Structure formats: structure tokens, C-alpha cells
Amino acid sequence: MPSVAQTEISYPRTDFPADLECHPLLIVDYAKVAAGDEKEIDTLYSACTNLGFFYLKNFGFEDKLEPMFEMGKATFSLDKEELMPFEQGDSGMSAGYKFAGSTNVDAKGNVDTVQFINVAKDDALAYPEVRQRTYPPTVNDRMSTVTSFIRQSDNVLQKLMKVLEIRIGLPKGTLAALHKEGDISGSESRVILKSAPGQKGYVPEGVGEDGNPAAAIGAHTDFGVLSMLHGRGCGGLQVLPPGTSKWQYIRPLPGHAVCNVGDTLSVYSGNIFKSNIHRVVPPPPPQDKDERWSLVYFIRPGFDNPLRPLLDKSDIVKAHAEKDPAMKAMPKDQTAGSWFKRRIVNQRAANRKGPETWAASRGTEHTPQAA
Ligand SMILES: O=C(O)CCC(=O)C(=O)O
Ligand SMILES: [Fe+2]
């Protein structure tokens, strides 16, 4: 599959600096995984059990990305009064519009500098029936574009779940059963814009705890099972490799998505699969003058499913979870929904009481919080 879709970029931008040190990622060829190539599945397994991040190529819907960015552009062009009725709010919902500055990015109380438009999978697939919420007209007018992106992204990530579950001894279909179509879940598409300096919507970063500019999206682990991220060539995504203290850039590669393991896959697997911490910082020069777009699909379990290591389904998971202090400390009564809501509520700047609110928003990067 040629990687044309991402190289034919028509909006003005500069290139990510060729000489900037970046963290290398393994490259997984989706077409080979889908064809059952065990060597390729070994590469995927290795990526998910180490850094938890990898590039994915040949995923087969490269043509669905630009129409999603176009939907984002139309949405972010609306006036604030038109967008705010569709805002996420402060009670733990992710679906909807998120204005720049609505979430905290650190314990100090700095706020993010990006806008999101998130569309829940359950809403898109049921449209015009409303499962979680309604969306701006710019989304409704393009719901077939959104639905097609969600379906194809979901299929790809479901396939990766399928080949990964076998490797950890889970019976076939265990993870799919936690992601049933029609269940209300946190699965969603997201278009992200960090406006360029001087543009409408631009918000400058605050001063971080170390005196450097604060992050545009604060350090976090993702909430769900797997995330699939597409850029338009602009850098700024960084990972903190386990056991190190130096943030490292991920190089944008045309035609390649960046995928990563999230908290719920880490927990279900007894922490065999790693949900690694990452953040977005202002793009490195010369891209600091550009607008930065990204597009993500998150696959997340149905809200009502319990969230704990799947001990009774696999001896491999059981043996691993029993050796892992964070997994042993997992509260027994939490669900995928309670985990998700707790993290979102405590990230919202309006809910901040102090550094303890930031601490309460954390995922598997520290000993997990109670639900
Ligand atoms: O925009 C990016 O590069 C990353 C976004 C991200 O980490 C997220 O939305 O969870
Ligand atoms: Fe993320």
C-alpha cells in the first residue's frame, strides 16, 4: 500500500527537523498481521510488551484521514457560542467539543492549549439516534465520513487485539466480548488542533514545573485498550521511555500511524502490555510557527465491564499479575467506565482543588487510584 495519502499535504507547513534526536519505534505492517504472519505478530507483541508504542503501516484507510481533518477544520471554524453547547462539560464525559484551556496539564495547574472534537463510536454508529450526546452541525453533516473512519479504525484495532490475546493465553474472543457493538463505551474518534501563534484559537503555553514551557497536552497514559494516531507531519509528541527521565520525540513518518497500548489493555493483561506515558509539547522549530493537527481513534471497553486483570481467563495473565505490585493494588470494584470518568473529571481545570486533583487523574503510570 503506498503511503501517498499523507505525503500529499496541501496546507502550508514546514518539515520536522531531520537532525533532531527521536526515540525509534518498531514498525508493524498491518497487512502482514492481518494475513497471519507470525513474524510480524512477534514484532507487534514485542512493541506492546516493551515501550507500548509502535508505527503501523498499510492499515488500508489512508484515504479516510484528510476528510476527518476537514471535519475538524469546519468545526473549529465555528464561533465559540456555536461550539460551547457541545462542550464535554465537567462531569466526566469525553464525547463532544473540548476548548483549549479546559484541562490541566500538570500538578501546578497549567492548562492545555489544544481543541478537540471527539465523536463517540456508539453515537456515530447509531446516528441519528443519540446514545451519549449530540454534536455540532459540522459533524452531523459529515457523519458518514466519521462513521467510516471509526469503523475502519475499530476493525484494525480489533484485529490487533485478537492476535495479541492469543499470545497471553486468553481464550479467543475474550477482548472482543468487552467491546461489543452497541455497548456504551469510551471508544471515540478525536481531531486535535493546536493553532499556530497569531491564529484564531491560539493559546500560549504556561510555565512548567521545570521552568520550561508547559505541555500542550499534559503527560498521560491513554485510558483504553489501543490508540491509533495520525498526524500531518508536525511533531510534538513525546514519550518517556520506562526507567529514564528524558522525554523523547516521536518522529512523524508519512503514511504511518503511531499506535499505543492504553491502561485497560495493561490492566486486563496483568501489565504484560505496557501503557506508556506520553505528552505533546509545542512543535520544535521551524514547526513552532505551524498549526499542529492530529487525529486519533481510541478503542475502549464498554463502560459496564469490570476493569481488573483477567486472572481467571489465563494462567499467563495470572502469573504476571501476581508478580506486579500495581496490579495487586488494583481496586476490585472498578469498571472501565469508572476508570475513564475518574480520569477525565480530575483533569478538568474547573474541578481543580490543588495538586491532589492532578494526582487523582492519573492512570497506570503510578500505582492505580481507587475508582
Ligand atoms: O496529538 C498527539 O500527538 C497525541 C494526542 C494524545 O496523546 C491523546 O489525545 O491522547
Ligand atoms: Fe494520549
Automatic annotation (TrEMBL):
Entries under PROSITE patterns matching the protein: FE2OG_OXY
Alphabetically ordered keywords of this record: Iron, Metal-binding, Oxidoreductase
InterPro entries on file: DIOX_N (IPR026992), IPNS-like_FE2OG_OXY (IPR044861), IPNS-like_sf (IPR027443), Iron_ascorbate_oxido_reductase (IPR050231), Oxoglu/Fe-dep_dioxygenase_dom (IPR005123)
Record Gene3D superfamilies: B-lactam Antibiotic, Isopenicillin N Synthase, Chain
Highest taxon, organism lineage: Eukaryota
Pfam families, per the entry: 2OG-FeII_Oxy (PF03171), DIOX_N (PF14226)
Disordered, as annotated region: 348-371
Fe2OG dioxygenase domain location: 186-301
Coiled-coil parts of chain: none
Molecular-function GO terms, alphabetical: metal ion binding; oxidoreductase activity
Family: Belongs to the iron/ascorbate-dependent oxidoreductase family.
Protein name (database record): BY PROTMAP: gi|647396133|emb|CDR38156.1| RHTO0S03e04720g1_1 [Rhodosporidium toruloides]
